[in-house]
Write a structure and sequence with these properties.
The protein is of the alpha/beta class. The chain folds into 2 domains: 113 residues, Aspartate Aminotransferase, domain 1, CATH 3.90.1150.10; 235 residues, Type I PLP-dependent aspartate aminotransferase-like (Major domain) (Aspartate Aminotransferase, domain 2, 3-Layer(aba) Sandwich). The protein has a 7-stranded mixed β-sheet with strand order 2-10-9-8-7-3-4, with helices on both faces. α2 runs antiparallel to α12, α5 packs parallel to α6 and α8 packs parallel to α9. The protein starts with 12 loop residues before the first helix and ends with a helix. Bound molecules: (2S)-2-hydroxybutanedioic acid. (2S)-2-hydroxybutanedioic acid binds next to loops.
Length: 398
């Protein structure tokens, strides 16, 4: 027998929150766990642009024959443009390939497995804290993960100097995993000036960026949020970018993402592309079609694309409003608390500067679900549950 030597592993800390939330039948329960957007009514609705694209596909799609390991070419080109714009040097020099992947996670996995092919002993530096699955994916490829300080969860402070100090320990050829925008889990992003310093530093030290951009559009807008991608791929010769359509198209379960590889020359780009496709073929052969076909139709149709931009703007604006409302209410209800930093942060997530005990009180006594380390999904707040949540948090201070 060979299938009898294992012990069960614990649940993923994010997915565990969803399981606990589902099992709770308290009518007041609030889900601030997994990173999905909720609208003003608390629903994760299907975007109108997506519905329209799906209607179009039902009427017009002619085949379900195999795609290819690279995925949908119209999708790949459209994602390339979202990330790099239309006149970026890597486009003109044919130094970037973009391939459809099953979600942002699939894109990271393909990027990391490709990295393993290039450099079997690569070290990947991840921010502390980060999305927990970054460790899982680096680990699965048997690469070494090291951490750079990024954010003080107890104080709600971004640690730029400490980040730079720790990146100073990286060796030539080390890979630095960066969150393109809306850092998961802190919501604390670098300013453009700070990104410029990072780019210069990485160039000087010959470090390689691996950019995970899963929330494009949720910080300052689709175009502005790609600043890091454009900057680093302009200044540095090589990069890997894993992007996701889960959040900005709200097609979480359809699993749509892309991996882009920027290489030093056009010839290398072709060679590297062939290796990425080999990785794909050996894992899932080719990506699922539907979600990417929807995204491709939206991005390649002026009317639907404009509708999409409008819908992304609405999602971003609502989350920002919830951030401000939360901060205002907490300042009124618990003057000794200090959650002002939450209004400055981006995307869905922030940490509540609470003790683990306080977090457990919120979960167990108030049925407000969040990660045990205090990460909350601000997009889970609505005008209907805001009072309940801020009252509960204020009760910890008064
Ligand atoms: C999250 O961080 O909650 C999301 O990225 C969903 C996930 O897969 O963990």
């Amino acid at each position: 027998m060979i299938l009898s030597g294992l012990e069960a592993v614990g649940d993923d800390p994010i997915l565990l929150v969803s399981t606990l939330f589902r099992a709770d039948d308290n009518p007041n329960k609030v889900d601030l766990g997994v990173g999905v957007y909720k609208d003003a009514d608390g629903n994760t609705a299907i975007l109108e642009c997506v519905k329209k694209a799906e209607e179009y596909l039902v009427k017009n799609q002619e085949t379900k024959a195999y795609l290819s390991p690279a995925g949908n070419p119209g999708f790949n080109d459209a994602i390339k443009e979202l990330l790099f714009g239309t006149d970026h040097p890597v486009l003109k020099e044919n130094r970037v390939v973009t391939f459809q992947a099953p979600g942002g996670t699939g894109a990271i996995r393909i990027g990391i497995d490709f990295l393993k092919t290039c450099k079997p002993d690569a070290t990947v530096w991840v921010s502390d804290p980060t999305w927990p699955n970054h460790y899982g994916i680096v680990d699965a490829a048997n690469l070494t993960a090291k951490t750079y300080r990024y954010y003080n969860m107890k104080k709600g402070l971004f640690l730029f100097d400490e980040m730079m100090e720790d990146l100073g320990q990286a060796n030539e050829g080390d890979v630095i995993l960066l969150h393109g925008c809306c850092h998961n889990a802190s919501g604390a992003d670098l300013s453009n000036e700070q990104w410029n310093l990072v780019a210069d530093f990485m160039l000087e030290r010959k470090l390689v960026p691996f950019i995970d951009i899963a929330y494009q559009g949720f910080a300052n807008g689709i175009e502005k949020d790609a600043y890091v991608v454009k900057l680093l791929c302009d200044k540095l010769p090589e990069a890997i970018v894993a992007s996701s359509c889960s959040k900005n198209f709200a097609i979480y379960r359809d699993r749509v993402g892309a991996v882009s590889i920027v290489s030093a020359t056009e010839d290398l780009s072709k060679i590297n592309g062939s290796h990425v496709l080999k990785v794909v073929r050996s894992i899932y052969s080719m990506p699922p079609d539907h979600g990417a076909a929807v995204v491709s139709h939206i991005l390649n149709n002026v009317e639907l694309r404009n509708l999409w931009i409008k819908e992304v703007d609405e999602m971003r604006t609502r989350v920002k409003e919830m951030r401000h409302k939360f901060v205002t209410q907490m300042a009124e209800k618990a003057p000794s608390s200090d959650f002002g930093y939450i209004a400055e942060q981006n995307g869905m997530f922030s940490y509540l500067t609470l003790t683990p005990e306080q977090t457990q009180i919120l979960i167990k006594e108030h049925h407000i679900y969040m990660m045990a380390n205090g990460r909350v999904n601000i997009a889970g707040l609505t005008l209907s549950n805001m009072d309940y949540v801020t009252d509960a948090i204020a009760s910890l201070f008064n």
